[in-house]
Amino acid sequence: MAEIRLKARRREAGKGPAHRSRREGWVPAILYGREAGSIPVQVLTHDLDRHLAAGLGTGTVVRVDVEDGERREWTAVLKEIQRDPVSLRVMHLDFQQVLLGDVLVVEIPVVVRGAEEVMRRGGIVQHQLPRVRIEAPVTAIPADIEVDVCGLGVGQHLTVADLRLPPGVRMAEKPDEVVITVLAPRREEEEKPAAEPAAGEAAAGERAGEGATPGGGT
Predict the structure, then answer these.
(1) What is the pTM (predicted TM-score) of this model?
(2) Beta partners for residue 72, in sequence order
């Protein structure tokens, strides 16, 4: 991913100023770290949306250019994206200021390849661990980890230990944690409840039972 630069502007701290930021087309955020301290900032919504569409996510290293009387650029990792649970609109961002020599633990997505091939053979790919924590130098944090599931059959799975990491990157999850499982499709008979007789049929059956004599005579 190309280097990402985000222009930000210092804002007032607090809920009121954060609400005002959103109304005016900004997303409130906080930039914190050893040298930065804690700086409430805001980034333009349309600028952020453009970068999110291009792959910006938690764990991404960005250059945050903060206007605070004078401009200062900080190297930071996007640590958290808070979204509205209904509209999914981005409500707040957390940036952790870092130094290029730092080693961080961050969460990155696991991208599945080959799921279509598994489905063509009748399996259902269940992504049980869509994000994993890794430990990596700031300059070596990957955007994601790809995993190829083409060779998996029904009942098989991949664990954290099966993921391939770039040089210099360590996994921060338990190695036996299941990442991908291939399930068998549910049979239609299991999903369909037993058919109940129609009201007319049930009533006819009851009348026939009442009129019948022991031994089958009339």
Answers:
(1) 0.68
(2) 66
